[in-house]
Amino acid sequence: MTDMTTGQTPSPKRRTDLEDLVRERLAELAISIRTLAARTIDTNAELQPEAERRTGPMWNRGTLQNLLNGVKAKAPTPAELRGLAAGLELPLRAVQDAAIGQWFERDVFYTSDATVRTIVHHAEELSEEGRRKVLEIIEEFRNR
Question: How much is the pTM?
Answer without folding.
Answer: 0.79
